[in-house]
Amino acid sequence: MGRPKGTTGTKRRKWTSDQKLSIVKLHLEAHWSYPEIEREYKLNPGIVYAWVTRYLNEGIDGLNPKSNQGNTMVSLYKKKLLTEDEALRLENFKLKVENARLKKGYRVKGVGSKKEYIPTSKMNTKLS
């Protein structure tokens, strides 16, 4: 499975949009190179390039942290009483997931918690 995430290296730093902006301006206005900035601030390679690109494309808003919505259907799975609209949205979502799995070549065997996803390449397709 590989090494556990986050066990080696330095801890990830959180950069404010003001700090990012000052670093981006070092590159754009003071003409520092990417490697110089990365060495000075101990940044991972490419992060300054990503910040500069986002700043040029989106302005200061590109440097603000983005929030991750996650899976919006989790709340519907956990809810006990669903309205008709919510039930239809959940059913539609389940059908889309099933369709995507079928396109990737998986078949579902079993029901509920005993479901298995079997690749169609390993299934016996001959009828007895």
How would you explain this protein's 3D organization?
The chain has about 130 residues and is mainly α. Among the domains are: about 15-65; about 85-120, no CATH class. Helix content is about 45%, strand content about 5%. It is built from 5 helices and 2 strands, in the order αααααββ. Helix 1 (about 15-30) crosses helix 3. The radius of gyration is 24 Å and the shape is elongated.
Beta-strand share of residues: 5-15%
Average pLDDT number: 82
What is the rounded distance between the termini? 38 Å
Largest beta sheet, briefly?
2 strands, antiparallel
**Uncertain ranges:** none
Strand order, sheet with most strands: 1-2
Reading the helices and strands in chain order gives HHHHHEE
Concise account of the structure shown:
The chain is mostly helical and 128 residues long.
Question: What descriptors fit this protein?
Answer:
128 residues, two-stranded antiparallel sheet, 6% strand
Topology summary:
Layout: H1 17-28, H2 34-41, H3 47-58, H4 74-78, H5 84-104, E1 106-109, E2 116-119
Antiparallel strand pairs: 1-2
